[in-house]
Amino acid sequence: MAILRFAIFRLLTMLATLLVVSVMIFVIINLPPGDFLSNQINELRATGQSSGVAKAEFLRKEYALDRALWEQYMIWAGFMPGPHGFAGMLQGEFGWSFEFDRPVADIVGGALWLTVLVNLAAVLFVYAVALPLGVIAAARSKTWIDYTSAFVGYLGLATPNFLLALILFYYGNRYLNLPIGGLMAPEFEGQPMSFEKMKSVLIHLIIPTFVIGTSGAAAMMQRLRANLLDELSKPYVETARAKGMSESRMLVKYPLRVAFNPFVADIGTLLPAMVSGSVLVSVVLGLQTIGPVLLTSLKSQDQFLSAFVLMFVALLTLIGTLISDLLLALLDPRIRFGGRGA
Amino acid sequence: MTQLPDGRYIDDAPYERDIGAEARHADLDVPNWVLVWRRFKRHKLGLVSGLFLLISYLLLPVAGTIAPYTANERHADHLYAPPQGIHLFHDGKFIGPYVFPITSEVDLEDYSWKYVADLDSPAKLSFFCEGSYYKLAGLFKTNRHLFCAPEGATVFLFGADRLGRDVFSRILYGAQLSLTVGLVGITVSFVIGIVLGSIAGYFGGFLDWVINRVIEILRSLPELPLWLALSAAVPSHWGPVSVFFIISIILGILDWPGLARAVRSKFLSLREEEFVRAAEMMGAKPARVIRRHLLPNFLSHLIASATLSIPAMILGETALSFLGLGLRAPAVSWGVMLNDAQNLASIEIYPWTAIPMLPIVIVVLAFNFFGDGLRDSLDPYET
């Protein structure tokens, strides 16, 4: 029961955080002077096309952009009814993209799933790489394995993601015949899910996953190594060895379990970094995630679109953190339920 | 041996000072920074990185002198010229550093520029020669360059980009912005982090709660999308200098939560110490207790961890400029330069346009090693 209470408590915290984040995002989006429509109206007036002006004015009214800022926020978030039935995000209406002249939900629809997919793949990659490498680096510390993995790790941390993406793309295509650009072969776009399409997506995922995951994996690996090394110098390890346990069995049975907690807890810091990375890498590699959408909408001040993407990105990280918190609570009996300080 | 009236015994031999004692303990009596330095010296990688960074930053003001060309000087005849090597021996004879002049030809097959080196007429480089005008350290107008090519020849150590600008010179000019962006950013984050962290840790209560929530929220959000959103808000008509400052402030604004948390937890444990109580009893105001008694305790640690977050800012600036939302064209930074190398085609045909990634990787690595070494050596009494 306690875990249920804890889960509910964490969920409520998450919702409160989301509320604060929505205010923050709204403010940031409205920082630049003017908005998409007033820019458009000015432009249309300057070129003397009065027919377009009427439409833009209509849209401004329709989406309450002519009201005070706080009213705009309340309407956008869905706390207040908007004019002519424009409900807010709480009601599941995300607004209109002025640049593409389509509802926001239409534009980002498929991209959302691909974004989740890319990030999920990257997280799995990080764990799959960091766990064995970290353990080996600790168990064989101060050998060439340790030094090589440390060196590669440092290099991974120091190379800007987007450059790594470009370079791997180039060589991957040249020597391994990996596809360039996109998340699936063009003929599958808009097609229903099938086995062939899955295969295409998986092949296209290889490089992005690698690029997004490398720096996270490097950091994770080093932390696991440090934690394990701390544990390895403790007396109980000596005892286990003295009993004649095989090195690998001993390692997995005792120190690894203790060193494992931070590994799960770290997802809280890992996930924001991954989502950041995936946005950047998507732009460079032209993946159909929300990364490129965010960039174009920010540049053209398409406010509903960019606000929605930012909200989604924030939600994604918050949910990830929530899951890791719950996992940690299940894994580690020492964590008390019911908030901090207990 | 004499007995004193109170019953104790005293040796009659004159008091002899232990001559070696001071020398033997001199080690532990030296000021803290000497101990730190001794430990840091043992960390070879950190030492080399630190020296490298020191030299790099010292050279920043004279970047214009080292560069043979200025940042935006165009050579219309040498678009995408490949890197030129500097040679010393010609026909088996030593004639000093020289380059081969190159001339351009259009390849009519694929319409790319091909360059042919004139191998018969080596052009000797001249030193402390006169070239285009630039401002030394942003103050003195001068046209002296460390080295330049003679009339009729060019010296592109790392090749030229799509407008025929020298990549080597641009890397040097770019360093001026790319390297300082991290410093300005870290200053911003340092100030915010220390002020908020110490308020939260020292006063506790409601303020602590509020600051803690803010920290948690900021830490749980992905940085890059927020950086993008904030820098999209920078008006496009601002000059390069104000854009530079606002970008570094943006980079710093999202970085402080980590520092603030470290400061806060230190304060929570130090606040209960007796020397703090004593200071308070003597009537010191909170600001004085924080500045004089608490902060000096762990300032060095903060500096070390700040060093470790400079690379993130350098990479952040590069990413923003690369995406076209950071520093803009007349300004030169490594990110702006890489913006040109965005597509695969240009990397394939003109690989040298991607050279600015090398200084980024090297500097980021150096900061990491330097920070690691600094952190390890700050506890001189710990083994």
Automatic annotation (TrEMBL), chain A:
Residue stretches spanning the membrane: 7-29, 111-139, 151-171, 201-221, 263-287, 307-331
Chief localisation class: membrane
Membrane topology: Multi-pass membrane protein
GO cellular component term, pick one: plasma membrane
Pfam families from the UniProt entry: BPD_transp_1 (PF00528)
Signal peptide start and end residues: none
Positions of the ABC transmembrane type-1 domain: 112-328
Superkingdom in the source lineage: Bacteria
Keywords of the record: Cell membrane, Membrane, Transmembrane, Transmembrane helix, Transport
A biological-process GO annotation: transmembrane transport
InterPro entries according to UniProt: MetI-like (IPR000515), MetI-like_sf (IPR035906)
Subcellular location: Cell membrane
PANTHER family on file: INNER MEMBRANE ABC TRANSPORTER, OLIGOPEPTIDE ABC TRANSPORTER, PERMEASE PROTEIN
Annotated family: Belongs to the binding-protein-dependent transport system permease family.
Protein name: ABC transporter permease
Organism encoding this protein: Shimia litoralis
UniProtKB/TrEMBL annotation, chain B:
InterPro entries: BP-dependent_transpt_permease, MetI-like, MetI-like_sf, OppC_N
Domain ABC transmembrane type-1 span(s) in chain numbering: 175-371
Matches recorded under Pfam families: BPD_transp_1, OppC_N
Superkingdom: Bacteria
Subcellular location: Cell membrane
GO biological process: peptide transport; protein transport; transmembrane transport
Membrane-protein topology: Multi-pass membrane protein
Record keywords: Cell membrane, Membrane, Peptide transport, Protein transport, Transmembrane, Transmembrane helix, Transport
Name of the protein: ABC transporter permease
Organism: Shimia litoralis
Species lineage: Bacteria, Pseudomonadati, Pseudomonadota, Alphaproteobacteria, Rhodobacterales
